[in-house]
Amino acid sequence: MPRDKEDSRLDDTRINVAIDETLVEVAFRCGLLGELRTFPITASQFEYPMSDDINDIRRVWYVDSSGTRIPMKYVSNSKILNWRDPDGDTSVQPSFYSYPYFQGKVLNFWAAAPPTRDYIQESWVTGGTARTVVDSGINFGKELGGERIKPGMIVANLTDGSIGYVEVLDTITNTTSSTATAGTNTNTLTDSTKNFTSLGVSIGDIICTPSTGVVTGYAFVTAVGTTTLTYADFQSSGGAKRFEVGDSYKVGVAQKIRLSGDTPHPGLRDGALNKFSVGAVKATITGTTFTATTVTGSSTSGAEADDIAVASGGAHGTVSGVDDNELTVDRWIGGIPAAGEVVSVKVTDKYRVQMDYRVERTMLLAPTPSTTDTIGSESIEVLCNTQPKLPEHDFDPIEVPEQFMRPIQACLAWKAAERAGDEESIVDNLEVKYERIVTQYQGNIYRPPIEESMTAFGNRHSGRRVAERRFQDSRGIAFDITTL
């Protein structure tokens, strides 16, 4: 700022925040940073969350197993949802999409599922009773976006349509257990009798108290020392705020969710029990060897497509094909089992965990895919404009082309004045100046043409096109998704 201007209200923090706001604003207004993103499709899933850093979606393609890119058609949310028949309308090739649709954020948990996914958002229970979900292939402590499972989050039973609410997390098998000793405090559990490093405790594991019986509190491991575990996000069903000296505890991978029975009662739809079901064993396979998508061993008699194959080590996968002595599975959730593990084939319920606030933008596909991308094909490609990566250090580059320095400078002056608490008239004048300048850059050569409006309220064509009605093409022909 000029030497005669007082700038004590603009410290580095305010300036950095103003810079971040400016880059996001200019990139959005000018449609910068076009990017092609690819995500795999999953059988029976028609909702696909989109990253928060996406500003606009321009075009969408379906990529089939041979690598052919097939354009998909945009329709409104209501058309897809009205037309969708969950029990009947499925296809290897989805042809229509809609965006945005808002839902509670679906959590993606570590599953080590080769060859295409390390994190997954939908899985199958491997054990369960009323108000209990057990999944031996998942680590609920490791979530793709860094979210933690907290009491009150929703566990949806995708098989019978019922829901439950998280009360506490638990382990199936403990890495170790004992009693907290001196040094245990707000964010550290200390046990002078243990060597947590040699025991193999990992970041993302959970600490539960007590060590036996019903869990009343849990927290997530964020750092592992010799005799100390640093933890975060302590959660309690009884009002406790942290681990105390003398508390008995256990540590392990979070693979079990106990659901709340408190008000509001778990959502029971049409008499459905809040129970996650595991059926009887239909086939047992021994003498096994495994690949990323198969298990070979003794007789597979009794197994059918869409059953769940569960290895004795905990990994599991959906059966997609049955041959003599071999099953094809979509992927092994929990990693490829070790040779010799016994495989049990069952029918189990499908579930997912999501936040109870509608904060996630989602793309809807129709018809619902009936196949799963298991070898890196059968995917959806999205051409989109994204937000810039914000600089963290003074020497970081700025992800906005230099040609846009003029609107950046104008926007920064406006944002900095807001942060400094300048008079309203000054802030307003700077905003007007920025609006006048940025308008000149909105038709720049970097911005992809808008072929279809991405508004959630319809797909009206621009004034340059012949068509002006919703669901009408450039030749004036009206269409409806139900007739395509």
Into which percent range does the helicity of residues fall?
Answer: 10-25%
* Structure class: mainly beta
What about the largest sheet? 13 strands, mixed
Number of strands: 29
Mean pLDDT: 85
Provide the gyration radius in Å.
27 Å
Low-confidence stretches: 453-470, 478-484
| Count of alpha/pi helices | 5
**Principal-axes shape call:** globular
Strand content: 25-35%
Quote the distance from N terminus to C terminus: 61 Å
Q: Key terms for this structure?
A:
7-stranded antiparallel beta sheet, 13-stranded mixed beta sheet, 484 residues, 5 helices, mainly beta, disordered C terminus, single chain, Elongation Factor Tu (Ef-tu), domain 3
Describe the structure in your own words.
By secondary structure, this protein is mainly beta. Among the domains are: 12-32 and 389-439, no CATH class; 126-278, no CATH class; 283-346, Elongation Factor Tu (Ef-tu), domain 3, CATH 2.40.30. The chain is 13% helix and 35% strand. The protein is built from 5 helices and 29 strands. The strands form 5 sheets. Strands 2, 5, 7, 10, 11, 13, 14, 15, 16, 17, 18, 19 and 27 form a 13-stranded mixed sheet that branches. Helix 1 (12-29) packs across helix 4 (405-420) and helix 4 packs antiparallel against helix 5 (424-439). The model is unreliable at 453-470 and 478-484 (pLDDT under 50).
